[in-house]
């Protein structure tokens, strides 16, 4: 007489296939998250540069068309130029953003250190295309430092 056996549980092949699919999904999600995070950091840097440029123009107008002390005035905790100067002073990549007067008008040179790589710096330059001060030239990257006149 034959004994009929019923299969219980899952086999090794099915388990390995399921793990392979899960691993593939995790790799795809990690790449997407990394790309989205970098895009968010670039957008934050663009926003900071534009806020600092606008604040420097307000400072220039409010200071009788002089740029003396622009860096300390804009990043001071009690200023009226930036909404949140403490968070605007730090770049999305951790370095301190610096400001220096540029030329004789309301323009400033903004330097962002610790940009992760040349590709990120190139994307930052492209995002700020057309925002530079008249006659200032294009922003540039020297290693991991972004510099532009706005």
Please provide a written account of the structure.
This protein has 150 residues and is an alpha+beta fold. It has a single domain (16-149), classed as TcpA-like pilin. It contains four helices and four strands; from the N terminus they run H-H-H-E-E-H-E-E. The chain is elongated and about 105 Å long.
**How many helices in DSSP terms?**
4
In sequence order, what are the helices and strands, one letter per element? HHHEEHEE
Q: Percent of residues in helical segments?
A: 40-55%
CATH structural architecture: 2-Layer Sandwich
Overall mean pLDDT stands at 85
**Rg measurement, Å:** 26 Å
What number of structural domains do the residues give?
1
Percent of residues in β-strands:
5-15%
Query: Biggest sheet, open or closed, and with what strands and sense?
Result: 4 strands, antiparallel
Decide which structural class fits the backbone: alpha+beta
How do the strands line up in the largest sheet? 1-2-4-3
CATH class term = Alpha Beta
What is the first-to-last residue Cα distance?
91 Å
Question: What's this entry about, in short?
Answer:
The protein contains four helices and four strands, in the order αααββαββ. It is of the alpha+beta class and 150 residues long. Strands 1-2-4-3 form a four-stranded antiparallel sheet, with helices on one face.
Question: What are the salient characteristics of this protein?
Answer:
alpha+beta; 4 strands; 150 residues; four-stranded antiparallel β-sheet; TcpA-like pilin
């Amino acid at each position: 007489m034959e004994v009929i056996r019923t299969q219980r549980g899952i086999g090794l092949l099915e388990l390995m296939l399921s793990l392979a699919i899960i691993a593939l999904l995790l790799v795809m999600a990690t790449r997407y998250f990394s790309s989205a995070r970098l895009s968010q950091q670039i957008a934050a840097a663009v926003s900071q540069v534009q806020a600092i440029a606008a604040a420097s123009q307000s400072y220039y107008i409010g200071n009788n068309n002089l740029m003396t002390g622009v860096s300390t005035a804009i990043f001071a905790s009690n200023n009226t130029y930036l909404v949140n100067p403490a968070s605007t002073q730090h770049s999305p990549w951790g370095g301190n953003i610096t400001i220096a007067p540029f030329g004789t008008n309301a323009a400033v040179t903004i330097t962002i250190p610790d940009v992760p790589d040349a590709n990120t710096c190139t994307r930052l330059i492209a995002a700020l295309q057309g925002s530079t001060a008249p006659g200032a030239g294009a922003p540039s990257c020297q290693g991991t430092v972004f510099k532009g006149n706005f």
